[in-house]
Amino acid sequence: MNLFHTLIARKLAPIIACLGMLFFISPTVTLAASASEIDIGVNETLKQFKAEIPGGEAFLRKAHGVLVFPKVIKAGFGIGGEYGEGALRIGAENVAYYNTAAASIGLQLGAQSKSIVIVFLEAESLKYFRNSKGWKAGVDGSVAVVEWGAGEDINTIDIEDPIIGFVFSNKGLMFNLTLEGSKFTRINK
Q: What would the 3-class secondary structure string for the chain be?
């Protein structure tokens, strides 16, 4: 039986390696969006944010900048990864475009889509992010995912972190998630 598993592993290894290479190479080609497509997605994601987060619109007015990824695709077959493109909005204007990417190893199979909104509440943290060549959550800066009671206005809780992250699925706001290990890189659009 051990010889059988070894033979199967040898046959499947190249297939798995090819699938992994396709996943990590093709996102930049297949998921690449134009600036106008990203802008439309950012607007829709911020509408969802304001609709689902009580007090969300007032909370965003306090922000020095908001990084929005309308669609981040996560997929895996043993080795997993995620990729998405978005924009940094300051005031009412998108000032730069970014991608986010992360990789993971472990038991995983399938794909899912999510939206990410990262709010910079301090000018210094936004400046550091904008000046970096490739900013990694958990290394270059910590992104706190805030939890609060359902229906509670976000402006009623005491937030002390300079960078706050929100993750949405097609079912709404997702809690107990981390953005640690996600890398954010500026792209030209």
A: CHHHHHHHHHHHHHHHHHHHHHHHHCHHHHCCCCHHHHHHHHHHHHHHHHHHCCCHHHHHHCCCEEEEEEEEEEEEEEEEEEEEEEEEEECCEEEEEEEEEEEEEEEEEEEEEEEEEEEECCHHHHHHHHHCCCEEECCCECCEECCCCCCCCHHHCCCCCCEEEEEEECCEEECCCCCCCCEEEEECC
Q: Please check whether residue 126 is in contact with residue 116, taking contact to mean a CB–CB distance below 8 angstroms.
A: no
Q: Which residues have a Cβ under 8 Å from the Cβ of 44 and sit 6 or more positions away?
A: 70
pLDDT (tens digit, 9 = 90+) per residue, 44-87? 999 999 998 889 999 999 999 999 999 998 877 667 788 999 99
Question: Which tokens sit at 5?
Answer: 């598993």
Which of 177, 172, 171 lies closest to 145 in space, CA to CA? Answer: 177
Could you tell me the pTM of the whole model?
0.75
Q: Where do the domains of the chain lie?
A: 33-187
CB 84, CB 155: distance < 8 Å: no
- Three-point CA angle 119, 125, 126, nearest 5°: 65
Strands 144-145, 163-169: parallel, antiparallel or unpaired by DSSP? Answer: parallel
